[in-house]
Amino acid sequence: MGPMAMMVPAVLAYLLAVKMLSGQHLIAHGPELSIRLPLAAQVLMAGGDRHLAANMAGIRVLVADTFRMKPDEFLTQAQLQKDVSWLNPAHEDNYYIAVAILSQPQLIPAAQYVLRRAADARPHDWSPLFYYGFNLYHFEQNPAAGAAALLEGVPRAKDVQEQWALQSLAAKWIESGYRTGDAARLVGTMAANAPPGGFRRYLKMRAERLVQLDRLKNLAQKFRDTTGRPMTRIEDLIDAKLIDKLPVDPFGTGFAVDSAGEPIFRVPNPAGGR
Questions:
Q1: Residue 31 has what pLDDT?
Q2: What's the CA gap between 65 and 62, in Å, rounded?
Q3: CA 182, chain centre distance (Å)
Q4: According to the model, what pLDDT value does residue 60 have?
Q5: d(CA 35, CA 58)
Q6: From CA 61, how far away is CA 103, in angstroms rounded?
Q7: Mean of pLDDT values over 228-252
Q8: pLDDT at residue 272 above 60?
Q9: 42 has pLDDT over 70
Q10: Angle at CA of residue 130, ends 124 and 132, nearest 5°
Q11: Nearest 5 degrees, angle CA 127-CA 132-CA 137?
């Protein structure tokens, strides 16, 4: 039988199948993740192998179609990912998925559980600490703890540029997570421990501007005590003869006051003005 003779029955079978299926209705899919077995059952089904049980639960999470999942299914996923972390805390795919998917406020505790265990189980990997610190900063509104997580990851980074990036971001978070004087001392310590070169100079500049801001805040309190009112502009300190001139900001943006009369770093004007 030649190729053409074989193709004719195949085409007829295809056309018949299309006709039969064209009137059928699609069956609605069931829930993606609705069942979570106890840990003991998961290990038993994997023949007693915890790592295999972790992989099996991880595959369930990996193939789930999150676009079709309902809120309670995300809670199931969060628990499954915590199970994977308990079974094998070093599971790399698990912490990456946790970062990508468990980003709703009610899911963050599960993500942090996975990330912290991954950080402890993977001593040469700084990534879990970066994500853990970001969640502390962004979702938990705790920049000081977020900065500490970043600094914990610095020795793990083998690339110098990665170390500098982590420290630079940590320095920025320290500025918003600590009192100004404490932040100045912490960033100054980071600068002293940094290797000689441009990055050390950068950190020293950050520390210096924090020192100057802390001084201005102390003078603002003296101005308030003396006049009985808050400052309305940073130059009020000169008018009150508390300082002869404003300090120089090493970054060149300068200083201003907020609506409460508290000294702050001036926000650069995108148009180039002040």
A1: 63
A2: 8
A3: 24
A4: 86
A5: 14
A6: 15
A7: 94
A8: no
A9: yes
A10: 105
A11: 125
d(CA 192, CA 205): 12
Enumerate residues 6+ apart whose C-beta is below 8 A from 67. Answer: none
Cα–Cα distance for residue pair 223/246, rounded to 1 Å:
15
In sequence order, which residues have a C-beta less than 8 Å from that of residue 12 and are 6 or more positions away?
A: none
In angstroms, the CA 257 to CA 237 distance is 11
Distance CA 237, CA 255 (A): 12
Q: Are 162 and 126 in contact (CB under 8 A)?
A: yes
Q: Output the six-digit token pair for 1.
A: 């039988």
* pLDDT tens digits for range 60-106: 888 888 788 888 888 989 999 999 999 999 999 999 999 988 988 89
Cα torsion 234, 235, 238, 244 to 10°: value is: 90
Per the CB < 8 A criterion, the answer to whether 118 and 90 are in contact is: yes
pLDDT tens digits for range 141-159? 999 999 999 999 999 999 9
Supply 156's token pair.
């793990």
Segment 216-236 mean pLDDT? 95
d(CA 248, CA 229): 25
Is there a contact between 37 and 57 (Cβ–Cβ < 8 Å)? no
Q: Which parts of the chain are beta strand (E)?
A: 255-257, 263-265
Structure tokens at 103: 């980003």
Give the list of residues 6+ apart from residue 38 with CB closer than 8 angstroms, or none: none
What the block records as the tokens of 210 is 């924090």
